[in-house]
Amino acid sequence: MGNDGYWIQLTNSTPFGLYEDTQGFTWTIDWGDGQIQNLQYPTISLDHEYLIMGNLTITIQMVAPWGITSMSQPITIL
Description:
The protein has one helix at about 20; strands at about 5-10, 25-30, 35-40, 45-50, 55-65, 65-75. By secondary structure, it is mainly β. The strands form 2 sheets. The protein has a 4-stranded antiparallel beta sheet, with no helix packed on it. The chain is elongated, with a radius of gyration of 14 Å.
């Protein structure tokens, strides 16, 4: 990791027993700064560098056979 921006790390806290059930699903993370990343099964942690400051929202989305589920978390980069 460089020293140019602000780094954040997300850690997957899904119980390991559920990984097999979700391995065929599509996962994406919208970092809130215009960058969207596709996730591979099973992703344990991700690092992301923010080069902009402000109030942003991180959104993780799962596309499963029964529909789309997402979770968002606002963050502030100073």
